[in-house]
């Protein structure tokens, strides 16, 4: 049977579920779970999406992702392909790691979003040692929500969900945990009594317009670095950094695929574009000259 077309809304929030094939453990140890969270962080820095909750179990994982204008398929394909390559290399195996495509459900109601987060955070209750203390499970975001664990990878936005419970962070945490404990023993959805007030916990959702043209990206990078260059010239090693940064931003804010970038630049392979994108990622995360470039570009072009 042909695959059912995925329902996508680039300004949407998604419940994502990934699962391993057959009885293979998707995460064999904590190092594997750390690797997957690291990849989420990596592609979050590229595609600029938000994560509201996650829970990684042995054979599957749940994530709530706010795309903020990005394409959910590109986000998850990037994360899962990198993880599959890592997994197969580490365990000297070949073939698929994930069961079919990732599953996604569009979340278009905030009440459902809060209930969904509680469901995800309750996943560890099936593990005997966490049955009465799901908040102690390290690879669920609940511990970060409650201030028990530190968000080591800096991937979570806890304000959006906690802001529905109280304007006070401590009270919001206490009420949220009570809600999770109530819902764990019930199958039906429990409504949340939403507060109707501003909240220091709540964060505003911002949808980024991902339609920036390649020419505008190149022009901005040239002015920002005060170095003008021709991205179409193949063997210009002096400007390889600028080319790499531009390619990364084309992926991030221009919604270009690797194939689109190949066609735009000309006379370049997908593997080269992928390699330059990796270089661009290293530059914007590690080189002080470029660390604020994307945020400055968003402000100047008013695409938020």
Total E-strand runs? 4
Secondary-structure-derived class = alpha+beta
The chain-level mean pLDDT equals 89
Percent helix: 40-55%
Q: Approximately what portion of the residues adopt beta-strand conformation?
A: 5-15%
Low-confidence stretches: 1-6, 196-203
Describe this structure in words.
This protein folds into two domains: 171 residues, Alpha-Beta Plaits, CATH 3.30.70.1290; 88 residues, Chromosomal Replication Initiator Protein Dnaa, Chain: A (Orthogonal Bundle), CATH 1.10.1750. The protein is 43% helix and 9% strand. Strands 2-3-1-4 form a four-stranded antiparallel beta sheet, with helices on one face. The two termini are 40 Å apart.
List the defining traits of the structure above:
304 residues; globular; alpha+beta; Chromosomal Replication Initiator Protein Dnaa, Chain: A; 2 domains; 4-stranded antiparallel β-sheet; disordered N terminus; Alpha-Beta Plaits
Q: What is the compact description of this entry?
A:
The protein folds into 2 domains: 13-183, Transposase IS200-like (Alpha-Beta Plaits, 2-Layer Sandwich), CATH 3.30.70.1290; 214-301, Chromosomal Replication Initiator Protein Dnaa, Chain: A, CATH 1.10.1750.
